[in-house]
Design a protein that fits this description.
The complex is a heterodimer.
Chain A lengths: L1 E5 L17 H25 L7 H25 L18 H27 L2 H8 L3 H15 L1 H24 L12 H20 L3 H30 L3 H12 L3 H22 L6 H26 L13 H8 L10
Helix pairs in contact in A: 1-2, 1-6, 1-7, 1-11, 2-3, 3-5, 3-6, 4-5, 6-7, 7-8, 7-11, 8-10, 9-10, 10-11
Chain B lengths: L3 E6 L8 H10 L9 E9 L2 E9 L8 H5 L5 E3 L6 E3 L9 H5 L6 E2 L6 E2 L5 H4 L6 H5 L5 E5 L6 H8 L2 E2 L11 E4 L1
Parallel strand pairs in B: 1-10
Antiparallel strand pairs in B: 1-8, 2-3, 4-5, 6-7, 9-10
The chains are: A mainly alpha, B alpha+beta.
The structure holds iron/sulfur cluster (SF4) (2 copies).
One iron/sulfur cluster binds next to helix 3 of chain B.
Chain lengths: 346, 180
């Protein structure tokens, strides 16, 4: 038996005794990053595969929604920085070993690509815009309108670029966490694909919510069902990965399966975020009903956020260091050998 | 590459925590934060107990995951050595390095927000002095020097005494050694 207590005080706020460096700001950013990635991929897919008639929302308005979501996400990311004055330092270097550095450059590429795709769709997304532009004195017809036309003409290659960047963005949100060997719960390469698929699923859900036409709503509802199935499989694999991991990973996943995170995980994420929408979407396989489809989509979006929240929070709750700052009677029991867990360390 | 190491004798350490106070003074550590700390480890089962003290800090890892995770290069090796320092002028406070350190040796400086940690007192080391904690230890339990030279005090201690590092299984190759 072994106990480790601190003889001096080690209480660096938000690091020790409990790691609390990343909160809702990071969960929101990871969620909106995946959401935007999903919309980029589906919007690009609708354009490249010639489904613009069948999926008008995905082809024209979705990039705009993605751009808004990503802007909010990058704002919360900025809010999380403790030393905001140096934010520009992200763009003075590329640190090849740092996923966060890669991610910040990916974001820099995503923003203009997404903005151009949004511009390409804008005249069709907002029909009065063209008339209004023509009515403007000089800049409207001579400068702005040609830009719109150019983006529209180039929308296919733009869409292809957006698909590529969307996949990179979606995977990156997961790889960012999985690169931390120091946090046992994040140390699984499955987080990359899991966050990507979840991002695609929330993107499809957003299109279900935004689509005006039943045909488009139905198409993306069915797509989303497939994505939910894949996501469930990946969650299952991730849990198995942790259960077969080292002692720290087992302790971490126990928090999710039957510890302090379990009700959020089982009822919130698995139940309301994946299970119920899957059942609803399966029931609408042949004929979609708008209110039900929208309810399912809202649940998928909520589940997407919960997944980020659970992973971000749980990852910080298990650490390699196990130090006690205060007298803990349980330690004494262990030394005497009469506690509930005489050989436990965690 | 200069390979610095700290070697701490748990047999002579009496757990007085002078190293912690010396660090506070030397590095002007803000109230409520610490760059180093002392752990009391008790092993065995009553009545056969054994206690040892361990003065802990950043391990100045040869494979420093904090440096790898830093997106701006603010976390870096000093002068091609294994001493890991943070450049406050480049640090964004993104906290990736805190998440990446398995030893939880990093902290958020208050109120500025950049990241702080033990520097092995690099400002003293470049003048040929020992870090403040080593210099102040009344039990002479702490030793500091270069592992590159086989005749240095730290090399000789590691060659002749049984020793361990904290959680080498992290793969970080820590450079604070404890003599048993
Ligand atoms: S102990 Fe932590 S902060 Fe220090 S070098 Fe190693 S990983 Fe970095
Ligand atoms: S908080 Fe500062 S030192 Fe740490 S990883 Fe971010 S930029 Fe680098």
């Amino acid at each position: 038996m072994q106990e480790e207590v601190l003889a001096s005080v080690m209480a660096n706020p938000r690091v020790v005794p409990d790691l609390q460096i990343w909160g809702w700001q990071i969960a929101t950013y990871l969620f909106l990053g995946g959401f935007a990635a999903g919309l980029m991929v589906f919007s690009g897919w609708a354009i490249v595969s010639g489904r613009e008639e069948q999926a008008p929302f995905a082809a024209t308005r979705a990039p705009l929604v993605a751009l808004g979501g990503l802007a909010v996400g990058m704002t919360t990311l900025f809010l999380d920085l403790e030393h905001k004055i140096n934010v520009w330092r992200f763009y003075t270097t590329l640190q090849v070993t740092s996923p966060m550095s890669w991610g910040s450059w990916v974001l820099l590429l995503v923003m203009p690509a997404l903005a151009l795709l949004a511009i390409a769709g804008l005249p069709r997304a907002v029909p009065p815009l063209e008339r209004w532009l023509e009515g403007l004195p000089f800049a409207g017809p001579r400068i702005i309108a040609p830009v719109f036309r150019l983006c529209f003409a180039w929308r296919r290659p733009l869409a292809a670029v957006n698909i590529g960047l969307g996949i990179a963005l979606g995977i990156y949100t997961g790889i960012l966490l999985s690169a931390f060997n120091a946090r046992p719960f994040w140390h699984s390469a499955l987080l990359g694909p899991l966050f990507l698929i979840s991002g695609l699923s929330t993107g499809a859900a957003a299109i279900v919510l935004g689509a005006g036409e039943p045909r488009e709503r139905h198409l993306f509802g069915r797509l989303d069902l497939g994505l939910i199935a894949v996501e469930m499989a990946l969650v299952g694999l991730f849990v198995i990965d942790m259960l077969n991991g080292n002692a720290l990973q087992q302790a971490a996943v126990a928090r999710v399966l039957n510890g302090n995170m379990s009700s959020l995980f089982w009822f919130g994420f698995i139940g309301l975020g994946l299970g119920v929408p899957a059942v609803l979407e399966a029931a609408m396989w042949r004929r979609a009903a708008a209110p039900i489809a929208m309810a399912a989509a809202l649940l998928v979006l909520g589940g997407g956020y919960l997944l980020r929240h659970i992973v971000v929070a749980t990852g910080q709750q298990t650490s390699w260091t196990q130090l006690h700052n205060q007298f803990d009677p349980a330690l004494l029991e262990r030394l005497r050998g009469d506690g509930p867990d005489p050989d436990g360390r965690f | 590459m200069a390979h610095y190491a700290m070697v701490i004798d748990t047999r002579t350490c009496i757990g007085c925590c002078d190293c912690v106070d010396a660090c506070r003074m030397e590095n002007k550590v803000p109230e409520g934060l610490c760059f180093d700390w002392v752990v009391e480890i008790t092993k065995g089962r009553y009545p056969d107990l054994k206690t040892e003290f361990r003065s802990e800090r950043c391990n100045h890892c040869s494979h420093a995951t904090c440096v790898e995770a830093c997106p701006t290069g603010a976390s870096q090796y000093w002068n091609d050595s294994n001493i890991v320092v943070v450049d406050a002028l480049r640090c964004t406070g993104c906290k990736a390095c805190i998440a990446a350190c398995p030893y939880d040796a990093r902290l958020i400086m208050q109120p500025e927000g950049y990241i702080g940690k033990c520097t092995f007192c690099v400002h003293r080391v470049q003048n040929g002095d020992d870090p403040a904690c080593v210099a102040v230890c009344p039990a002479k339990a702490m030793h500091f020097g270069l592992l590159d030279s086989p005749t240095s005090e730290v090399s000789r201690l590691l060659a002749t005494r049984d020793h361990y590092t904290l959680m080498p299984e992290t793969g970080n190759k820590p450079n604070v050694f404890y003599l048993r």
